[in-house]
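User: structure tokens for this one?
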Amino acid sequence: MSFIKLTNVSIDMPIYNSQGRSLKKTVLGVATGGKIGLTEKGHTIVRSLENINLTIKENERVGLIGHNGAGKSTLLRVLSKVYEPTQGSVDIEGKIGSLISISLGIDQEATGLENIFLRAALLGIPRHQVQSHLQEIIDFSELGHFINMPVRTYSSGMHMRLAFAVSTMIEPEILLMDEWLSVGDQSFQKKAEVRLNNVIANSNILVIATHSRSLIEQCCTRVVWLEHGKIIDDGSPSDVCSRYFR
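Assistant:
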């Protein structure tokens, strides 16, 4: 059974080389991205998340909303275990799949074929699994003979198609997304959306950060509203969206 439980989770980001700037004398001032303060040793920090208590159960589809800098992406990175909490605890059961940065790990000098294995390795996908689906990935990306060319020769659209084709190989129990992925031209977007919906349907839990009310109402069963690193509302899409988007 998959679940997520965060208890009193806070994230403090150290800001280096800030001494002598205007931040130096700031004492826990509220900023767009959380709170700016000083540690006991006089080091500047930004508190990106503060006392987050959140439980997500199996079969829930949770949308994260809030203004830029509210803490949505930071929370996703906590869930993906990229960030360790400064305070509190994180208890997660289930295989995690992240579609936050689908181009992460792409080597511009390597060929498209080589990058398939590089990106898959970062996602924790075994090499034998990549090899068994290799032709499917190549066909889906529509790169043709360019698959053997360095990625630096690709257009931005070709680059994204390759990254998307590899990244959606994942079969997670918990799927994390930062906004809905939009890749390629209109014809490619249609089949990309079908593929993405299949990944979502096969996951037990979805957590997606978005600014789109229509997307939330379309695919989410619950909405968590973040501001200044704190949860200020948590409930049904109809209730929370009516307050946030009014």
